[in-house]
Specification:
With 239 residues, the protein is an alpha/beta fold. Helix content is 32%, strand content 28%. The chain is built from 7 helices and 11 strands. The strands form 2 sheets. Strands 6-7-8-3-9-10 form a 6-stranded mixed sheet, with helices on both faces. A 5-stranded antiparallel sheet has the order 5-4-1-2-11. Strand 1 and strand 2 form a beta hairpin. Helix 3 crosses helix 4 and helix 5 packs parallel to helix 6. The longest helix has 18 residues. It is globular and about 50 Å long.
Length: 239
């Protein structure tokens, strides 16, 4: 993947067959982000936010339309190539921290580097966790950490391989105001340091205002796209 990497969606739709009929989770979404910019995806529960993020990250393929990252149309790639792109070029922060309960904080973060055969994985992971305020927690298991600490470990895991694109699904969900602000600070600092492109699904207007632009969904469709207080140097969101 080229660095920095922009994101482009062209008339992207996703539908599912259910016993009750066809569900249109995402319908006709088009937008483009310049490399190194940030986007908040907002909307009510069930509006298609998480589905759209999964399409951007190649976790799912669209029923119609095209998704491109860094000039590569990922929506047409076979799953093994999409998996390689996710592993090498993308960093995911999911709604649940999804930490493995039998591994320590530093070992959970190190799993990402182990996939790349890094010899200095432990040192790099411990250093990043220390930068995130977890120097004294590296050898603790997830159930020995607070919710905010676990979320920071999850952020470290997403960033340790220096991805070109960071995708976060409700990264501040269930956190108090202080922990929420700290997690967004971490993501924005990492975005700036890595010159990464950042997409955050959020229901929190305060979080959305900290990103360059906002895309609002309702019933799987784009309602509007508005610029936030920080303007990206390039890129746009088409409503």
């Amino acid at each position: 993947m080229n660095r920095p990497a922009g994101i482009r969606l062209e008339s992207v739709s996703k539908q599912y067959e259910t016993p009750a009929g066809v569900v249109h989770a995402v319908h006709g979404i088009t937008f483009e982000m310049g490399p190194g910019s940030s986007l908040a995806i907002t909307g009510p529960s069930g509006s298609g936010k998480s589905t759209l993020l999964g399409l951007i990250g190649g976790l799912e393929t669209p029923t119609a339309g095209r998704v491109s990252i860094g000039g590569t149309e990922i929506s047409s790639l076979p799953e093994p190539q999409r998996a390689r792109l996710r592993r090498d070029g993308l960093g995911f922060v999911f709604q649940s921290d999804s930490l493995l309960p039998f591994l320590t904080a530093v070992e959970n973060v190190g799993l990402q580097l182990a996939l790349h055969g890094a010899a200095d994985g432990h040192e790099r992971c411990a250093e990043l966790l220390a930068r995130l305020g977890l120097a004294g927690e590296v050898d603790k298991l997830p159930d020995q950490l607070s919710g905010g600490q676990r979320r920071r470990v999850a952020v470290a895991r997403a960033l340790i391989h220096q991805p070109a694109v960071i995708l976060a699904d409700e990264p501040t969900g269930s956190l108090d105001a202080g922990s929420s602000a700290a997690v967004i600070d971490l993501l924005l600092d990492a975005q700036a340091e890595l010159a990464a492109t950042l997409v955050v699904v959020t229901h929190d207007p305060g979080v959305a205002r900290r990103l360059d632009r906002t895309l609002t969904l309702r019933d799987g469709q784009s309602v509007d796209g508005t610029a936030g207080p920080r303007q990206p140097q390039q890129g746009r969101v088409d409503a």
